[in-house]
Amino acid sequence: MKNKDTVSYIIAIILSIVFIYPLYVLILVTFEPVYLTFGRIYPFQLPIILTLSNLINSFHQVGLIVPVIRSVEVAMLVSIIAVLLSIPAGYGLQKLTSRVTNKIILLMFVVNMMPGVVVAIPISVYFIKLGLENSIFGIAFAQELVVLPLSVFIMLGGFRALPKDIENQAHVDGARLHSIFSKVLIPLVKVPILITFLIAWMTSWDEFTYAVIISPINPTFPVKLYDYVSRGEPFVASSFALLVTVPVVVLVIILQKYLKGEYLSGGLNGV
Amino acid sequence: MKVFKNYRNYKYILFVLPALLYVFLLSFFPAASVVYLSFSSKTGFTLSNYRGIEQANLGLAIIDTLIVSVGALFIQLFFALLIANILIKSLKGNKLFSTIFIIPYGVSTVVSAFIFSLILSPIGGFANSTLVSFGLRPVNWYSSSLSELAVVMFSDFWKNTPIVALILYGGLSGIPESLNEAASVDGANSFRRFIHITLPNLAPYIAIALLIRGVSEFNIFAMPLVLIGYFPPLMNTLVYEFFSSSATESYSYAAATILLAIILGFAILIIKIGGVKKYEE
């Protein structure tokens, strides 16, 4: 038994190094002078000479600050729409027979399987007609597609976990649908709502395909970063990449207890 | 009475309708229009777009996409199983490990690709710097098409294994401890317990993970674009390359249609053989 734990530890430690090392590299290129990293054939890997000048330089990159703000705005929009649409959908699905529910969920996922580039190209044509191209609304509306099926799935799981009697009880007490929703049900599914919001936010923050096709002129941060990398100016972008990555990683670590597989795989348990 | 009950039930579809319509309008119709456009020209029905892309790396792109998608899926599934199996044991320090294993989930795809381009770069790469400091010879990670695809797969493994591990961990924690205990009393070793208890109970979760990840894997775009550019071609980078130039824009519709067909084929395969079907009953 002891032996097996040792093996587990060794594997866990090796994997930990693999998972941390890339982040370490990003930190290194941010805080080490450029002549020790980008300036060498074999970059120096130990943090001996440290500097803040890369970081300070990156603050002067107005070209990067605006895309970050845009990314945050888009991510907020996407997650708000996701919550607003998936609450009623999850509630409704939970009321239907599980055969119908599963068909609808499956349908949503199949529609969701349409490749991003396949859908984004015609959408960009529609959005040009509607004046939504290169706007945060255009990106958000398109990215919502990626997020929505999973959001509905998570909310369905949330509503399924509630005791069946709660709503009936409220009915008996004479509450109307509207107040059942706002006073009884919503407070009880706070955690799934938070998870939906979080996952939608992260997905949008990460999303590249729709963003680059629908809004190439006013890019989000991932698109702008790609722009810098493809132009061969990685050192400009690296400290900025770290700056925007750290808050999100910290957020994920703080909220990791909510990021459970049960939610990600939706109402699978309850079926 | 039965009709009444059904009516009561179906009114709840109204709650689902907005989300359903949204996904349908913004996804189904655009996709249908891509398929339509891929077969049409100013004069009517045509196959010229398909003939055009056939000469422009289509076959290579299909093969490369299959290699990357299937390869990445297997690697991720393997390591996710490993991680989930470690985390499910109550080892000391598990909290720290699970925190470390979730880090890549917070690093966005383009940033991950960017970091790996720094690490694996043939000149000035951090991986080679490590190799050299251990007295080994540097490796050119971009020396062949296959190794370039491996670069993409490895970066993708780093970024996406955490999400697969989370899903499988959820499945593992749902398996009652008593099942394993009973089996080990009956003399089943850990390998047999894994085959006969863990895997069958985990099957629906594996199917979900395969479905969610598999579809994204076929859609892999930002990762290869940053790491290897347009060559070796993958379906998505090929579509985007065609789309970026107005001269070949109509080719992008044909390539997109083929990508769509591949993904739908994969999804049907997973749903048919996976555990998803079982859970519908």
Provide structural commentary.
Chain A has 271 residues and is mainly α. Chain A folds into two domains: 1-51, no CATH class; 68-270, MetI-like fold, CATH 1.10.3720.10. Chain A has helices at 2-31, 53-59, 62-95, 98-112, 116-130, 136-160, 165-172, 177-188, 190-206, 209-214, 221-230, 234-254, 261-264. Chain A is globular, with a radius of gyration of 23 Å. By secondary structure, chain B is mainly alpha-helical. Chain B has one domain (58-280): MetI-like (MetI-like fold), CATH 1.10.3720. Chain B has helices at 2-10, 13-38, 48-55, 58-88, 94-106, 109-120, 126-133, 145-173, 177-185, 190-218, 222-228, 235-244, 249-273, 276-280, and strands at residues 40-41, 44-45. In chain B, strands 1-2 form a two-stranded antiparallel sheet. The model of chain B is unreliable at 277-281 (pLDDT under 50). Classes of the chains: A mainly alpha (271), B mainly alpha (281). At the A-B interface, helix 1, helix 3, helix 4, helix 5 and helix 6 of A face helix 2, helix 4, helix 5, helix 6 and helix 7 of B.
Shape annotation of chain B: globular
In CATH, the architecture of the largest domain in chain A is Orthogonal Bundle
What is the number of domains of chain B?
1
The averaged pLDDT of chain A comes out at 86
Number of helices of chain A: 13
How much strand content do the residues of chain B show?
under 5%
What structural keywords apply?
heterodimer, A: 271 residues, mainly alpha, MetI-like fold, 2 domains, 75% helix, globular, disordered C terminus, B: 281 residues, two-stranded antiparallel sheet, 14 helices
